[in-house]
Sequence to fold (290 residues):
Amino acid sequence: MLKREIFLMRKRVIRLLIILFGFLFIFSCTSQKMKYGTKTEFHDKADSLQSLARIKYIKSLDYSDFKAGKFDNGKVAVNYRFLKPKKVEQNKKYPLVLVFHGSGAIGTNNTSQMGVLSKMWLLPENREKYPVYVLSPQFPVRSSNYHLDESRNVKASEANEHLDLVLESIDSLIINENIDRDRIYVMGFSMGGATTSNAISKRPDLFAAAINISGISQFDKMDELTKMPIWIVHGSLDTDNFPQSNFKFFDEMKSKGKVFLWEYKDKYHNNILSAELVDEIPKWLLKQYQ
Fold:
C-alpha cells in the first residue's frame, strides 16, 4: 500500500514538473521574441480555422459601449468613439489605449474605424482582466501621408493638423477622466501604424509604448524615441505598405532604442491581424510604464 502511494505521488510530481517546464519554455520563447533589438521571423502560410473564427468573432462584437463624440477646435474636427473601463473606481487611475485606423475607414460616420484593434478590448476576458480606456478616432481625411526619404530610399510618413487635434484633446481627457498619465499607449494598423509613428514623434512625452502594425515610419525624431518601447509588426509580402520603411526604422533603432520587430514572412497586408497577435498585444502593452 505504501509503495503504491509513493508511486502515485511520484507520478503527480512528474506531471507537475512537465507542466511547469512547459510553461517556462513558452514564457521563455515569448520573452525572447519581445527582447529589444531583436527581429523574429514567423513562417505561417495560413491562419488556423480557430484563429480565423476568433477574428471573425471580434469583428462581430457590439460596440455600443464605445460612446460617440467629436473633437473640434473650430478649424478641424475629428469624430471618435470612447470606451471606459467596465467599472471605474474614483480613487484609481486606468491606462488609455489610443487606436488609429487604416485608410479604408476614413470618413465621418463614426463607425468605420471600429475594427479589430478597437473591438479586441471588448472581449469579455479583456474587459475583466484589462480595465482600460480606449479612444478610437475617425479621421475625415488621411491622418498620415507618405513621401520618399531620399537619403534612406524608403517611404517616410508625416501627419497633419487632425492628428494634432487628437493629441491636444488627450490632454483634456487626462484632466476629465481617471486616466493614468504614465500608462498611455498608441497603436494602429496600416495608415494607423504610420499615424502611430507620427504620434510618438510629435509627443514622445505622452506615450508609454507604441505598436506599429504594417505602417510607414517617421524618421526625423528617432533620437527622441530611444527610451520608448516600440513593437513593429509587418508582413514580408505586404504590397500596400512595403515593409522596407519599418525595417529601416528597426535597423537604425535596434542598437540605441527599445524596439523589436516581428516579421511575418508569409503574410500580406490585410491578413496580418491574427488571433495570436491580438492575444499578445494587451499582455505586452499594459506592462509598459513611463
Observations:
- The chain has two domains: 1-33, 39-285.
- The chain has eight helices and eleven strands.
- The two ends are 59 Å apart (CA to CA).
